[in-house]
C-alpha cells in the first residue's frame, strides 16, 4: 500500500497531539511557574542554576527562571518553606539544615528538602609559598595566619573545622581570593585554604609570579576528614598547575540540585529526566556539568531523593538505598 506524504504528516501531527494531550493531562497538579535559587551573580551557581532553569522552562513549557540568593544555606531554607521550588546546595550545609543546625534557622530541621541529581565537586586545597618551608599539613606552625576566603563561604565554614580536626592551631583571616593571594605573596599571611573550583585563578597567578607549594592531605589525614565531615575523596590532577608533578590528594564537597519534597512527582520526574538525559545541553550551560551524571548519585550521603527522581533512577537501572528514599 502506498502511503502519501500527506498521510505521514497527518499521522505525525495526530500522534504529536495525542502526546501533547496526554502530557497536558498529566500536568494537572504541576505548578504554574517555578524559581531556582542560585547565588550571587558571576559565580558558578548563578550561571549553572539560571541556565538549568531556562532549560526546564523551554523544554517543559513551564514559566520559570533563576533567582539571585545568598547561596546554599539560603537556598535550603527557601526550598524548605516552599518559597522556591528548586535550588542548588552543597552537602555540608544540607547536613546542617537537615539536623536543625542551619545558621539561618537554628533548631528547625529542614526536612522538606529533597535531592535531585549531582552537579559537581568543590575541592578543598592548601597553598603556601615555597620558602615558607610548609610542605605538609603537619608542617603548618602554631599560630599560622591562614586565609579561608570570604566570611561565611563554604571554605570559611568548613576548612577551619577540618584543620582543627587535624590539630592545626591558626589565626583566621578572611577576604577575597585575589586579595588573599596578594597577602600570601607579601608575607601578611602564611597559608591559603581554598574551597573553590580548580584551577583557582589566584593560585595560577601566584605560581607565575613566585614559587609555591600545593599541600596535599596524607592518606591518614584524608581518612580522618572523610570520617568527620560530609566530603568525598578527591585528587587534584597534576595537569591543573605547573607546580604539581603528580596528582595531589585532597577532599571535596559535592553540590546537588534540590527540590521541595512536596512538589508533584511527575513534575520532578520530568525535570530529572530532562537534566540527566541531555548532558550535552547541561555542559553547554556550564562545563562543570560534565559530572552532572547519574553515576555520581552516591555522593549524596545526606538528603532523601525526591520520589520523582527515584522513579527515573530506578527505571534506568540505578539503585537508591532505602535510607536515601523519602519516608
Automatic annotation (TrEMBL):
This is TRAP transporter solute receptor, TAXI family. Residues 1-25 form the signal peptide. It comes from the Bacteria. Keywords: Signal. InterPro entries: TRAP_TAXI. It comes from Billgrantia gudaonensis. The keyword Signal applies. The keyword Signal applies. It holds the Pfam family NMT1_3.
